Amino acid sequence: MRPKIYLFGDSITEFSFDEGGWGAALANHFARTVDVVLRGYGGYNTRWALKVLEKVFPRVEGGGEPLAVTVFFGANDASLPDRYSAFQHVPLHEYKHNLHSIVSFLKKQWPKTQILLITPPPIDENGRLRNPYSENPVTQPERTNEAAGAYAKACIAVAEECGIPVLDLWTKMQQFPDWENAYL
């Protein structure tokens, strides 16, 4: 049986196998050597991810431990609590606790598996206003880059506390000039 890498996260993960997506690029890179397995759940936050962990990653007798698992949540958690996506909001302290719980579950399930946390990406507030995902009656972005940055910092802190690697997507994306329009 081929080794596996699981991609666990929200819609950014769910749609990662779309044309040009990061999941598709990983699958292409590891073609014929590693199976890249998608476990993306659009709209999910860390609170909801915790509720499905055991169903998503059931204990398998006789091994089957993956090489790695990416954990990519935070974009929905960082939705502002007073805007139209408030139902997805998870307070920052709970987000950190939830990430710790997810990492603990995965480490207990598969002690040798490498776990990689990925921070939420930056938010193009003007772009979200121009192209809202649903009706936006308040004409204010339901997410801000400042809030996403706070969740990114929390994700980095959890990775440090757990002694695991982290990809700081929030910072790396903003290092590119005109990052907000790079893929329009």
From TrEMBL:
InterPro entries assigned: GDSL (IPR001087), Iah1-like (IPR045136), SGNH_hydro_sf (IPR036514)
Keyword Lipid metabolism: yes
Superkingdom: Eukaryota
MF-aspect GO terms: hydrolase activity, acting on ester bonds
Keywords: Hydrolase, Lipid degradation, Lipid metabolism
Entries under Gene3D superfamilies matching the protein: SGNH hydrolase
GO biological processes: lipid catabolic process
Stated family: Belongs to the 'GDSL' lipolytic enzyme family.
Name of protein: SGNH hydrolase-type esterase domain-containing protein
Originating organism: Castanea mollissima
